[in-house]
């Protein structure tokens, strides 16, 4: 699966307030692929400023 596409799917789950713990863990594993200016996903991935 395309990583950028998956990140956008996870963003939608966050916005819909339907993200699971497994998906949060997946997002954390993809943190290196998140754009440095994407505060929304970085916060959910547990990346500190």
Can you put this structure into words, describing what you see?
This protein is mainly alpha-helical and 49 residues long. Helices cover 57% and strands 0% of the residues. The longest helix has 13 residues, at 3-15. The radius of gyration is 10 Å and the shape is globular.
- Cα(first) to Cα(last) distance is 28 Å
Integer average pLDDT: 96
Count the DSSP helices: 3
Order of helices and strands: HHH
Strand content: under 5%
Low-confidence stretches: none
Keywords:
single chain; 49 residues; 3 helices
Summarize the structure.
The chain is an all-alpha fold and 49 residues long.
Strands, helices and their partners?
Layout lengths: L2 H13 L5 H9 L9 H6 L5
